[in-house]
Input
Amino acid sequence: MDINYELYKVFYCVAVTLSFSEASRRLFISQSAVSQSIKVLEKKLNQKLFVRSTKKVQLTPDGETLFRYIEPAMNLIRQGERCLVENRQPGGGQLRIGASDTICRYYLVPYLNRFHRQYPHIHIKVANQTSIRCAGLLEQGQVDIIVTNYPNSALTGMGTPRILREFWDVFVANREFFPLEQEVLTLGRLKSYPILMLDSKSTTSQFLHSMFRRCGLDLVPEIELSSNDLLIDLARIGLGIAFVPDFCIPPGEKDLFVLQLQEAFPARHMVAVYNESLPLSRAVKQFMEILLEDKL
Output
């Protein structure tokens, strides 16, 4: 199909704002021009893209399908424009990073500090999402690089994961409420206790459920949350046994202990991933150099 790019640009703006008037304001064209462009695009595609009423605008199922393809394309165009601007302005630019709250707090902050001090004119934008969601942000072109837990089922092979560090997941409990410090537990026995863990949309949850399935066990957690810090807090007051990455446990922790398991859990990794099909911006190259300095 030979469809003018401007029609897709108008479609994207309406799909993002779900408002013809707001799209016209952002595109600096009249509302009637926006409406006409959508009508032309719908006619060319022979599909209805929006449901319009006096109060709201919604994407149709076909419109949602088209939007899933148009959004990453628009992000890639903007990314290309930014790279060209960076090439004309040495020392400037933007770095867009996707990472979970846990990775940001316990791993990335020192590297972001070092990067900011070394390149103070580069704008840093951090998108806090789960590791699974971060993979989606990378695929859609909304971030330049992600730092994620690995394995990550949402990574689609657009880049080779670069290992940054190794870590182990552990079960921690308050010894006062769970006097198990001298015992070696099987997963079968462990599941009889209240388990506190991250919610099902996390790589950590997927990993733990897979370990239980390998032993023919079905895990039903007592509490699922979105914060490792909160899991540790709840374990500290005795609400259950928390499953967390070892690097989240505060140094010198006095109330909690790490349970000993009969089944050995494999290590996981923290990795950096970027889209290898696109030219790397100067900012991403510089940030990767800092991330990998400790690996040399």
